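notes to self, project folder thing:

trying the whole complex as one job this time. last attempt i did each chain seperately and stitching them together was a nightmare. two parts in total, labels are on each line so i dont mix them up again. if this works i'll redo the older ones the same way
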Amino acid sequence: MTKTPMLSRVADSLFWMARYLERAEHTARLLDVHLHSALDLTPAAAGRRWRRLLTALHSPLAAENVAPYAIAQALIFDITNSDSITACITAARENARQVRERISSEMWEQVNRLYLYLRTTSMEEMWSGEPHLFFRNVKEGVHLFQGITDATLSHDEGWWFIQIGRYLERAMATAALIDVHFCTLDSQDATTLDYFEWVGLLKSCTAFEAYCKVYTASVHPEDVAEFLLLNAEFPRSIRFAADMIQEAAQAISRSSVPHATARVERFAGRLRAALDYGQVDEIMMDMHTYLMTIRRMCAQVHDALYQACISYSADEALR
Amino acid sequence: MFISYDIDSAYDEMFTASGQPRPQYAPLYERLTSLSAEELYRRQRAADAAFLNQGITFAVYGHGDGTEKIFPYDLIPRIITAAEWSVIERGLTQRIVALNMFLRDVYHEGRILADGVVPRDLIYSCRHYRREMRGVHVPRDVYIAIVGTDLVRDVDGRFLVLEDNLRVPSGVSYMLVNRQVMKRTFPTLFDRYNVRPTDHYGQALLETLRALDPFQRPDPTIVLLTPGVYNSAYFEHTFLARQMGVQLVEGRDLLVHDNQVYMRTTAGLQRVDVIYRRIDDDFIDPLAFRPDSALGVAGLFNAYRAGNVGLANAIGTGVADDKAIYAFVPRIIRYYLGEDPILPNVETYLAYDETDRRYILDNLDTLVVKAVGESGGYGMLIGPHSTREQREEFRQRILAEPRNYIAQPTVMISRAACFVDGRVEPRHVDLRPYILYGEGIVIVPGGLTRVALRRGSLVVNSSQGGGSKDTWVLND
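result (full assembly):
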C-alpha cells in the first residue's frame, strides 16, 4: 500500500503549534533578561530599554508612563494580546489538540501541563515572588516539549513541519531583536550602546557564553552581529535557523509534489545563501536593510510553503 | 464478597433463581470468591489507570481546561454461551437483512407501503426520512453497513431487541478496549475460558468499507469523517482510524469538485472513494441539508448521488430506526423474508394509533414512554419511577404530537454481577453487538455490555451515568 500523504490541516496545526511555542519561549527569555538587568538602570535608560523590548516583540503597547508591572502583565497574561505568553501557549495547545492523535501522548501531556501551569499562576503572585523562576519554568517547559518531540515523534513529514515552524519563528524573532539594537532609535546611535547593552543582547539569545568561547569576553558590536547572524554552529543564530529551514524544506519537498514545492526550496536556498555568504562588514553598513531582507525571505518561505502544501486553491491543484 | 447479592424477579446473568452459579459462570464465581476486596480494588485501579493513560476518555462539556473522564469500567466480565450467541447472531442477521431491504424498498418502489404493511404517512412524517434519497442507487444496495443493535433480556432470559441503531452507532471502541484491559487485569482467568476473539473488528470494518467503493478499485482511499475534537466520541474516531490505518478527516479537509470528493493533503488533492462518516445526515452537506452546518462537505450529497463515492452508512437510514417504525419490524421481517423473527421485539404501543394511544394514556404509570426521534436515554418517561407532574407533562406532549411518542411495558431487564463499593452486587445490563454489512454480514462475537451503575436503575446510557464491562462469547 502506498503511504498516504499528510492532511494539509494537520501540517498547518503542527506548524503553528511549533511557532507559537517558540514565540512564547522567546518572549519569556527576553522578559527574564530584561527584568534582571533593569535593576541597575537609570529611569531614562529603563524607559528606552522597555521601548526597545516592545519593538523587538512587535508589541503595540506604549512604553511611556506605563509601569513595568502593567507591561509585563500585558506580555505575559493578557489573552487579548495575541502575542502574550499565555495567548501563545493557549494557541499552541489548541493546535496540538486538533492533531492529538498525530502527536505523541507525551507531547500532548507536556503542552497541556504548560498550559495548566499558566492558568494556575497569577500575575500578583508571580511578580511579588520570583519572576525569574516563572520565566525559567516557561522556557524549560518549551524546551522539554521540543526534546520530547524529537525523542517521541517519528521524524517524518509532520516532524519537519514542526521544525520549519520553529526555525522560521526563531529567525524572524531574532532578526527583529538584532534590528532594535543596531538600528537607530530616537536618533541614538548603535555605537553609544554600552557594554552592558551588548551583553544584554547576547543574553537575550542565551548566547553570551557561546560568544565568549569564540570571541572571548571582549564584546564588540561587529563581533556580536557576526555571531548572532552568521555563526554556523550556535542554535540561536539566524544562519543556523536558515540551515534548518532549508533542510526541512527539502525534506517536505521529498514527500510532496515536486513542482509545487520547488518554490519553497528556492526561497529557502536563497535565504540560506544570504547568510552563508554574508560578510559582516558589508552587513554593518546597512544592517537594517539586511535584516529586513532576511525577514522578507523568511516570509517568502512561509508563503510558498503554504501555497504548495496547505492553502493551495482546488482549481490549481486539479489542473 | 457476595454478601449483599440479592436475586429478585429480574433474570440474573450469573445465578439461577435458586442461587447457584450458572455453569458458564462457575469458574469466574470461584475466582471471585478467592479474591479479597482489596485485591479487586487494586485491579480496578489498574484498569482505570489503563484507560486514563491510553487517553480513552471523553471530554466533559463546559470545562475548557481539558478535564476528561473515563467511561466507568466494571471488572467482572459478562459471559454469553455459544448457544445463546448463535441465536443472537442468526436473529441479528435476519433483522439487518430485512431492514436493509426495507430501506431499499422505501427509497425505490415502495412495495411495502403500497401493500399497506407499513403506513405510508408514518414514513413521510419521519424526521429522518430523506426525500432526496428516492431513486438513488447506493453501492451494493447496502444502506446499513455499520449497525449497533441494543438487546435486553427479559425475566425468562430471552433476548429482545430494544432498539436498532442504524445511523451512526457508537461504542465499539469500548468493546475492543474493554477486552484489552480485561486480558491485562485477569490474565489467568481469561486463560481458563475459551473466549472468542474480537481483535479483528478493525480489519472487518475496513473490508466492509472497501466493499462500498462504487468502482471497486484495488486500493480505494477510505477516510473516517469526524465532526472534530470537540465531539464526545472523538476518541473512538481516532481509535478506529488507527485500527484501520485510514485518514481521520474533518469536513474542512474534504472538497467536492465535479461531483468527485477530494481531500487536501500536503501532496495535493487526493481522490476519496469511501467515507465512513460519523456525522449525522443533517450536518453532512450544507448544500443538501442543514445550510448552517460547518461540519460537513458542500456538494458531498451530489457526489454520492452521482455514484462517485461510497458512504457508510447511507443517507436516510434513520427512517428504519425510528421508534414508531420499530413496532413494525417483525412485520417487515415477515414481509421480505417470509420468516418469523428470531429475536422478538419489546411490545410497543404507538400513540399515533388511536386505540394504542388510549391505552398509553390510561397506563402512564406502568409504561415507559419514549420520544421517537431521541436517543441516549433522553426524552423518556419511566412510568413506575415518575411523578404525577412528569406524567401530566407527557400526557400533554403525547396529545400534542402523537406521532412522536411510543410506549412500552417496563421490561425488567437482566442483571449482571458488578464490583461496586467493595462488594459484588447485581446491576441491570443490556448488550449492544456490532453488525457489519459489506459483501456479507459479519458480527464480531461480543458487544458492549452497558451497565446501569446506580442500584435499581434501568437506564444504561453513558449520558445517564452508565458504565460498561467486557463481554465474553464462549466457544463450544
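what i see at first glance: DSSP finds 16 helices and no strands in chain A.
need to look closer tmrw
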